[in-house]
Amino acid sequence: MAEIEHLPSDSQVSDIVDVLEQHGAAIVDGFVSHEWLKQFNSEIQTSVDDYEPYDYGGRDAAEFMGYKTVRIGGLISKAPCYAELISDSRLLGVMDHVLKPNCGQYRLNSSEIIEIHGGETAQELHIDDMIWPVSSWNDDRILQFNVMIAGTDFTETNGATCVVPGSHKWDDVWREVQPDEIARATMKAGSAVLIPGRTLHGGGANTDGTPRRAIVASYLLGFLRAQENPYLHTSVDMARGWSATVRSLMGYDLYAYYDGDMDAGPLGYHNYRSPAELFD
Ligand SMILES: O=C(O)CCC(=O)C(=O)O
Ligand SMILES: [Fe+2]
User: Fold this and answer.
1) Is there a contact between 105 and 257 (Cβ–Cβ < 8 Å)?
2) Residue 222 lies in a domain
3) Residue 215 lies in a domain
4) What's 10's DSSP letter?
5) Mutate to test the pocket of ligand 1, among 56, 161, 193 (most ligand atoms within 8 A of CB)
6) Less Cβ crowding at N or C end of the chain, within 10 Å?
7) In a domain? residue 269
């Protein structure tokens, strides 16, 4: 049976990156503090209580997103302490290694609660980079990087993510997957599973009825369009309360990167100036 390597919470960024490069996934145990997790879960509770299922607009989409899965986005507007998670120095250290060399500036791609409830079946294995057509341009650079914090324990029976270690190096990522190639991201609440954009994975089946909550922060090469539209969940006033790093991650900044090799920009300007000037 395949396994995902576990690392301690005080791991060096270089150790995390080594495991990611080798295996295409890593779990960092005890990644967030109990206090932070308690605060987050309490701040998000109203949104969870108010949840109403979406119409995902088609059967394939509904199948992928799950019939018994609660998904809630726009986390920074609903749980302000989410800002601390996305600007965590270990996460930014990892993104500096895996995304920054290919874009200069990276952004938040999406924020999401994924709470899998009893009776949900396993999600189709997929790579998250499939969202952008350039993922098939025969290039092994990743576009997006997914971090999932366990908001509850992740177990084999409540839907712990299925991950295929090593699949990030496969020539044909869509080849048939053998059962013994699939690992489960079993971990305690507060741990994190890190899944770069070209690693096969999918939510697990929930057969025991205990809700499984993931708190997702996904990062993206800064010149690509993000999956989640952050501006419809936030405002300039809200952004005033964030650090400059968080504002930049949330897109309240100019993407302008000129190093000769990856020249791009300006993207995302406001009156032809950097949105960052709104906060001077
Ligand atoms: O919930 C999970 O464990 C994984 C979900 C996922 O990969 C997705 O929705 O893209
Ligand atoms: Fe995914």
Assistant:
1) yes
2) yes
3) yes
4) T
5) 161
6) C
7) no
Q: Which residues contact 88 (CB under 8 A, 6 or more apart)?
A: none
Bridge partners (DSSP) of residue 70 are 115
Domain residue limits at 168: 6-231
Over residues 119-138, the pLDDT tens digits come to 999 999 999 999 999 887 87
| Pairwise CA distance, residues 242 & 255, whole Å | 18
Helix (H) or strand (E) holding 71: strand 69-73
Q: What is the atom index within ligand 1 of the atom nearest the CA of 204?
A: 3
pLDDT in tens, 145-190: 999 999 999 999 999 999 999 999 999 999 999 999 999 999 999 9
Q: List the CATH number of the domain containing 118.
A: 2.60.120.620
Give how many domains the chain has, as a whole number: 1
**Residue 117 domain-assigned (yes or no):** yes
Q: State which ligand 1 atom lies nearest to the alpha carbon of 112.
A: 9
- Picking from 9, 30, 19, 74, the residue whose alpha carbon sits closest to that of residue 199 is 19
Ligand 1, residues at Cβ distance < 6 Å: 114, 123, 128, 161, 201-203, 214
Edge-to-edge strand order for the sheet containing 26-28?
Answer: 6-7, 26-28, 192-196, 144-150, 212-221, 106-116, 69-73
133-157 residue pLDDT tens: 988 787 789 999 999 999 999 999 9
Classified as helix, coil or strand, 270 is strand
